[in-house]
Design a protein that fits this description.
Length: 300
Amino acid sequence: RKEMLGEVFKVILDPEQIKAKKEKLGARRFEIQLLKNDIGNNTRLIEKFSGCISLFDDIVSVHTALAPSDSLPPEGDCDLKYLYDRNTLSAIRDACAIADLAATNYGHSVGVVIHNSLSYREFSECPYYNTLVTSFIGDLLRDYKGVEIWIENVTPIHMGECIHLKNGCITDSSDIARHLREIFGNRIGSVFDVCHAVITHRMLKEITGKSVLADIYKGFSDTCKEVHFANAKEFGMKPGQHGCGFREDNEKDVEELKTYLFLCMTYFPAAYLCYEISEKDYIKCDAVSETLKIIQKLHN
């Protein structure tokens, strides 16, 4: 299989999963996904990382912890909006510690991916949020010299016990990254999550009748360091609809993949392309494998 430029594969710190990605998908570059049980025990986390590091050819990024919506950090994920929360701060620093170790090992900076549900207006006009975010990111960049901070767009709706709307779903994460670059330079970037952007686009199109997907892509064009590549079914809110792969026997899937990939190559030609795709079995890797087959055919 011919490797795409900048191709990255997402894994947790599990040796069997890493080996499977390498053997079945030809994975060489990785994004490490931290989980709820990684939070707050830095010694154990470093031990887990040390047990896996010999299996990696390269590490591009570390994603801050994800967890169920009924657990801490607030709403389950690390988010720039919740930097007042002790668990969120701890989880982000854990991710930075691992990324800094990886940067030392591989001789290049490593991105730390943080979700963002702040609107740019909240960030730029509210002194509390502006000071909170700017101060904390400054501390991280000072304490972890090998780390970059990459801010990721989210979906418009939180589907936890209490359903509510979120900000940070259009171009806000890129706008905040652009603002912070004026202070911290190129160690700040964004992550463009295709699944999240597609869901946002579909909801806005239902309301306005206008397609905004290309505009959202364009808004990240000057800050994007990495793409999270996956599809969504409908609005991505039901089980099995979020972070989907693309099926080779589904004409609509193939056409959507072509569109999303074309926009990625148009607006983010220098960004990493990370396959962030849900699997029924992360050892078998069937969904990513089928997505790769479609991409391979497009580039032959």
